Amino acid sequence: MSAQGKVLLVTGGSRGIGAAICRLAARAGYRVAFSYVSNDAAAKTLVAELKVSGGAAIAIKGDVGNEADVLAMFAEVDRAYGRLDAFVNNAGVVDMKARVDEMSVARLERMMRINVVGSILCAREAVKRMSTLHGGKGGAIVNISSAAATLGSPGEYVDYAASKGAIDTFTIGLAKEVATEGVRVNAVRPGIIDTEIHASGGQPDRISAIRGLVPMKREGKAEEVAHAVIWLLSAEASYTTGSILNVSGGR
Ligand code: NAP
After folding, report:
1. In this structure, which residue's CA is closest to atom 6 in ligand 1?
2. Which of 195, 224, 246 has the most ligand 1 atoms within 8 A of CB, as the residue to mutate?
């Protein structure tokens, strides 16, 4: 089934998993909007790429952990496209490898503000536009969790794992809350995926260091996560809500 003419917003869509979701979505016929926080060049390059393949695409700069930026991002989508059919809560951060007994309150607040509060604020705005309770026509939301939510990430970033555990619980609760309002809410738990997030947490060699722990003995590609997301957003997943899909090579 085609998504022709439908509108998708992806947070943190300029690089990594988010960019792969934008590329597949454009191919499926979605008009795409994505957000990013700092890397203007990557955002500009992706918009140009998506437009070359015939699609509509806009990039919106802003921090998902800042309510004013979140409101401005959704207002920009309203202005540009006038509708919202699908939303992906993808923006997320890690931090430097640390034990819990070394973590500062500033670190914990940043992690929870971006990964948890940001995701809930964005979903709030998506529901206001999609839910039949608010006059919307329905829609689908996918939250990007992590295998860390089930593994706990000891000695690395338990705070990040806990933030993704919160995303799992949020997915289950919101899915039930809006189940009769035309909105489906699901999550995907990627395992170790080849993106720049590992370097951003000070571990550029993380993939080669832990590849052997994955039952499939390899890392995943961003596109392999994106395929799962696009399916969950699609009409083919019409009876799937409150689900959390592992895309982690068996880990
Ligand atoms: P990435 O390569 O580091 O890309 C992060 C994207 O999010 C970029 O577009 C970045 O924008 C944007 N971003 C970062 N902080 C933001 C903020 N505060 N507000 C708005 N946008 C922000 O990350 P990734 O590996 O693709 O990860 C995407 C999601 O998958 C995250 O939720 C992550 O936790 C999850 N995940 C990743 C893996 C993995 O192995 N890669 C595994 C499990 C889960 P700029 O380009 O402007 O910096």
Report:
1. 12
2. 195
CATH number of the domain that residue 97 is part of: 3.40.50.720
- Confirm whether 2 is domain-assigned: no
Kindly state whether residue 1 falls inside one of the protein's structural domains. no
Structural domain includes residue 24: yes
Distance 187 CA to ligand 1 centre (A): 15
Question: Residues near 53 by Cβ (< 8 Å), separated by ≥ 6?
Answer: 26, 27
Instruction: Provide the annotated active-site residues.
Output: 160
Instruction: State the total domains in the chain.
Output: 1
- Contact, 244 vs 168, CB < 8 A? yes
Residues within 6 Å of ligand 1 by CB: 11-18, 35-39, 42, 63-65, 90-93, 114, 144, 146, 190, 192-193, 195-197, 200
What is the pTM assigned to this prediction?
0.98
Convert the pLDDT of each residue in 68-124 to its tens digit.
999 999 999 999 999 999 999 999 999 999 999 999 999 999 999 999 999 999 999
User: Please, what is the average pLDDT of the chain?
Assistant: 97
The CA-atom distances, in angstroms, between 122 and each of 43, 140, 178, 226 are 20, 13, 15, 19
Give residue 209's pLDDT.
95
The boundaries of the domain holding residue 129 are: 7-247
- pLDDT one-digit tens code per residue, 123-172: 999 999 999 999 999 999 999 999 999 999 999 999 999 999 999 999 99
